[in-house]
Amino acid sequence: MLACQPVLAESVFPATLRPAEAQYRVVVNGIPLGLKATIRLETLQDHYQLRFFIDNKLFRHEEISQFQWRNCYAHPLHYQHSSSGFGINRHGEIRFDWKQHRAIGTGGDYPLPEAVTDALGIAMMARCKMASGDESFSYPVAEAEGLTDYRYQTLGTRELETPAGSWHVAGLERDYPEGGRRSRFWAARELDYFMVRMDHQENPFIRGRIEMTDFRYLDNPSPERQEGMTSAKR
Q1: Does 30 score more than 90 pLDDT?
Q2: Which of 157, 163, 191, 216 is most buried (CB neighbours < 10 A)?
């Protein structure tokens, strides 16, 4: 398996990320839960902010990553996460001190290698790897307690139906050291490989997915919604 390198030809993937927002429905063991998940990518002065959140009366989960984008490398600046509800109450954050090359987080303080990203930044880098057709890649990811290698294998390409339409997608599967866990990600070529569906198996008894219901770009005065190719459009 080849290690992911933070360099990719600009002709393969855009040099800048286009601000966008996507909404997803949450399904667990085949049952829609009535929960809405949102992924929002914004430009903030000289860096980007990526936010993933699920919020309702019973459960709330949020992850926020701030990073700079350099040749398909998400150079991390700050990362935080929090979850509450259903007996869960946890949070964590990491501040990246690049002058000292240290990660300062709620779980500890540890040295950083030159090339590292965070748990959301890796999703942006995965878009580049899918665009370039890499069969596998790995990358060091900074978490609150220390560094972890995230490893991925390609699932090839296919057409995938979602509530937002049908998309030409590329897929990745994350390799976990724990047996029984599995995550699969599907991203649309028409949206510069923005994620349209994620399937996650925590154990043999719990399987969930989020699938896109709406997508829009945010860099226009009146953000336009994007729809996949439906049967009526073919």
Answers
A1: no
A2: 191
pTM for the complete prediction? Answer: 0.86
Q: Return the SS3 of 122.
A: helix
| 3-8-14-19 Cα dihedral, nearest 10 degrees | 30
Tokens of 148: 């972890």
Rounded average pLDDT over 86-103: 89
What residues does 102 pair with on adjacent strands? 97, 111
Q: What's the pLDDT tens digit per position in 107-125?
A: 889 999 989 999 999 999 9
b/e map of 78-96 (b: 16 or more CB within 10 Å)? ebbbbbeeeeeeeebebeb
Nearest residue to 90 (alpha-carbon basis) of 111, 109, 63, 108: 63
Residues in the chain: 234
